Amino acid sequence: MKALVSILLLPAAAFAANDAEATAHAGISADQLNFFEKNIRPALIEHCYKCHSSESEKVKGGLTLDTKQATLLGGESGHPGVTPGNLAESSIYEAITWANDDMQMPPKNKLPADVIANFKKWIEMGAPDPREQKTANASGGKRQIDMDEGRKHWAFQKPVKHDLPAVKTEGWARTDIDTFVLAGIEKAGLHPVKDADRPTLIRRIAYDLTGLPPTPDEVKAFLADTSPDAVKRVIDMYLDSHRFGERWGRHWLDIARYAESSGKEVNVLYPHAWRYRDYVIESFNRDKPYDQFLKEQLAGDLMKFETKHDQAEKIVATGFLAIGSKGHNNRDKRQFAMDLVDEQIDAVSQSMLGLTLACARCHDHKFDPVTQRDYYALAGIFLSSDTLYGTYSQLQNANTSTLIELDRGADMPSGLAAISPSEYAKLKKNHDEAVQTAENIREQVRRSSAEQRNQQNAANFLRVRSSFDRAESVKADLDLFYADGTPRTLAMGTLDKERPVNTTILIRGDVKQPGETVSRGLVEVLCAKGEPLNISEGSGRLDLAWFIASKDNPLTARVMANRVWLKLMGSGIVATPDNFGLMGMKPSHPELLDHLALTFMDKGWSVKSLIREIMLSRSYQMGSGYDEQNYAADPENKLHWRMSQRRLDAEAIRDAMLFVGGTLDFYPVDGSPVARAGEGREGILNLAREVMNKPYNYRSIYLPIIRDQIPEALSTFDFPDASLVTSERDTTNVPSQSLFLMNNPQSISAADAFAKRIGEFKGTPIERLTYAYQLCFARPPTSAELTAIKNFWTRFPDQAANGKQTKEAKDYAQKAALSAFCQSLFASAEFRYLN
């Protein structure tokens, strides 16, 4: 209170003197300064500081008005306190005019008309404010970052072309990749193992490119092709398959933390997330240049387009920024906005740059040369953008959003069936009735006596809330259609706000402690010394997109090349694929990584070309045989002296089971079950019922992905946390996986379908069982396996018949034996692993 009294006793001239440096910096004219000191500051002190200053015993609504930054920022409502030149976007002006019954300041006595008029004039003139909150170091002042020194880190230097190293083993290397790999192997005194046999190789190629096993006919054709280009031909065949985009699109969806709900405390459905999934699949199938792919996800709405369809696709791409997890029940709008931005910065930096920039939210990065100023420069870019995810008001959803409506001429799938105009009219009537019912209930509560309201407070709240929730749920269904019953084409995504904003550094990341304002801009350490960092026009997303997807960026190509290598070779050249910073692992083959990155960019950022180059190397085509000397020196196979044995991921295991059984549906309906489930808690229940009662035999990438409710077939085999950027999944081998393959109804159903397919195959019993091996393992059974099969076949049917000799019992026994045989193939290690 003493400090507040001292402020009150100071004359206006003293304030002007104290703020002289800030005034010069802000460029405020003398007339503007006098107006503020004469009319605005005294009013703030007299009427506002008691509840809204850093000296307040308890700051109300999270709003402080004793600094320029805090006044502009606003309070917990999430709306700007003052928007210079814009009364409609200034929540303080709305509050002091008592225009909103829910927000009136001061709460008991309205300000005099002349004071309100002064605030109006002040905002219209641009809200000149000499007050500045100076912080010597918002990060605490404990660590000074030397950017010149920081730029010396290997990952912050551009990749360069290296001469091929000398090797001793002549004739082994087929490609430049092989030369780099062989040099490392020889330097360690090791040697590469022999090449994989051809059935093993085509199985490896097929799974790596499509996530499915090769068919017996494909294996037969490959074995018969003895030409030098046989491997290239089979690689190109799978690269050209639509299955390629489904396989490699899923890899990117792991990185993009794709899901169809918000997760966290309140799991709100995102019915239109599927559009982003389909965009990713199509991008990989078309081999969209990777730099273009990144640009579209960051700023597709701002890019030039050729057709309406092209424009719609680019807008859908920005769904990348909208699909992250969110805490929808957060009542503090400002906190929600900053958490959303933090999630976006984290996703963008890890997925595209391999950096953990979100670690600089509360302080300078503890390890990397990234400042808190860098973080809030990026935050301003995303705060200047509207993230639209499409949810409606519900009991625990305090943060709603609209969607982006795509042009009707864009020829985009709607994901919904059309309804008749009469059905639409009925839906509208239901909505109007639901709204009226909700209003009636609220009015009944208002008219009840104070005693009744106090006694039934909780019950009344739930009655009113549930009635409005019902109205919002019906509105969500109504908003999916035009009046003629045609489905609207809606998408999650990001658009620029009309007025870009610069944000303040938040001391310790606390929204209630704003520091100095930071201009929107780029990450300093990744820019050349002296290169302009700040953004002057628009949100800055387009600048950020070009900055990230540039050949001059030292990280982008390296990060993607490392991920492709990881997916094909079993481990990354950089073992921490989402962290190329100082705490990340150094590359095992730095020259090879530079070679891959440069080749990737030189070939037009073509992912398919990069994959083809790696697959055509002898390093990729090696076997996975054991070598005692090599293993003793390099047990983790960091030098790639053999191909690492890899377990199939969850999707490949499930899809392969359906595929070999002949029941895999390659053509699911447009959209997603989530889009048809409905809004709120009712939508979650509808979706659960549909997933439980309806068999889904299409590819796993099209299954609904609800955060914290991942399908068992995926979660059992280490499906990643859909709220996090994941380049490399965990790989476990636990009893629950075997139990799933033996006992789960889905596994049993797949084995039954497989058995039916084998039973219908024309041939002798041994030929049928050989065919089963070819479908599962791309090879015939060995002599030892044939002996085991014969022994099984002589014993199991009799046990299944339980001694009964009737035809029905024998038929049942034969089917049960065949199904058990097929299930044993699914449960085998060879089915689940690539050699």
Describe what you observe in this structure.
- The protein is globular and about 100 Å long.
- It is 49% helix and 3% strand.
- The strands form 4 sheets. It has a two-stranded antiparallel ribbon. The protein has a two-stranded antiparallel sheet with strand order 2-3.
- The longest helix is centred in the middle third of the chain and has 27 residues, at 421-447.
- By secondary structure, it is mostly helical.
- The model is unreliable at 1-26 and 134-142 (pLDDT under 50).
Give the tags.
single chain, 835 residues, mainly alpha, two-stranded antiparallel ribbon, 35 helices, 8 strands, 49% helix, disordered N terminus
- Classify the secondary structure makeup into a structural class: mainly alpha
Low-confidence stretches: 1-26, 134-142
Number of helices: 35
Gross morphology is globular
In whole angstroms, the N-to-C terminal distance is 74 Å
Proportion of beta-strand residues: under 5%
Largest sheet: 2 strands, antiparallel
Number of DSSP-assigned strands: 8
Question: In angstroms, what is the radius of gyration?
Answer: 32 Å
Q: Fraction of residues in helices?
A: 40-55%
Average pLDDT figure: 86
Read across the widest sheet, the strand sequence of neighbours is 1-4
What's the SSE blueprint?
Blueprint (H helix, E strand, L loop, with lengths): L1 H8 L2 H7 L1 H7 L3 H18 L20 H6 L17 H6 L16 H12 L22 H4 L25 H12 L10 H13 L5 H9 L5 H10 L2 H14 L18 H12 L4 H10 L8 H10 L15 H21 L18 H12 L1 E4 L15 E2 L15 H27 L2 H6 L1 H22 L11 E2 L1 E4 L6 E4 L7 E5 L22 H8 L7 H14 L20 H13 L4 H9 L12 H6 L12 E2 L2 H11 L19 H14 L18 H4 L19 H9 L1 H15 L5 H13 L5 H19 L5 H21 L1 H4 E2 L1
Antiparallel strand pairs: 1-4, 2-3, 5-6, 7-8
Helix pairs in contact: 2-3, 2-4, 4-7, 10-12, 13-14, 15-16, 15-22, 17-18, 19-21, 23-24, 23-25, 30-31, 31-34, 33-34
